[in-house]
Amino acid sequence: MCSRYALHATPMKVAQSLGLPIDLDWDPAYNVAAGRPVPVIATDPDSDDPISTHAQWGFHPHCACDKAPTPINARAESLRSSRYFLGSFRHHCCLVSADDWFEWTESHGKRCPGISIAWMASP
């Protein structure tokens, strides 16, 4: 599962690709790790319109104690059945723009990153 990704598209490129206004600025990042703020498209709770904002990468539901682990991702196959993620999956989704992502594999007893490149058509 992805635990690092790259975002080298400019805010203007992301805005054009999505057809949405992006009022954030960010520098290209080629090794975005969990735990840092990342640019996302979310839903404005007051208007239900899409908004661009920064969000902390990680998940800590209100029902979890403070010392509970903070998962950074979830499997799509189990989101609807997982009590841990279900409420947020239904009501608090966001879109994370990524150009590439890293998948870790094991080779000869060592973990090695492999990059997967997202091929998207330009606007």
TrEMBL record:
SUPFAM superfamilies named in the record: BB1717-like
Q: Which GO terms describe its molecular function?
A: lyase activity; peptidase activity; single-stranded DNA binding
What top-tier enzyme class does this entry carry? hydrolase
GO BP term (any one): protein-DNA covalent cross-linking repair
> Could you tell me which Gene3D superfamilies the record lists for this protein?
SOS response associated peptidase-like
The EC number(s) this enzyme carries: 3.4.-.-
Keyword Glycoprotein part of the UniProt annotation? no
Q: In which domain of life is the source organism classified?
A: Bacteria
Keyword annotations from UniProtKB, A to Z: Covalent protein-DNA linkage, DNA damage, DNA-binding, Hydrolase, Lyase, Protease
InterPro entries according to UniProt: SRAP (IPR003738), SRAP-like (IPR036590)
Q: Which Pfam families match?
A: SRAP
The similarity comment for this entry is: Belongs to the SOS response-associated peptidase family.
Name of the protein this chain belongs to: Abasic site processing protein
Give the organism the record lists. Answer: Guyparkeria halophila
Q: Name the lineage.
A: Bacteria, Pseudomonadati, Pseudomonadota, Gammaproteobacteria, Chromatiales
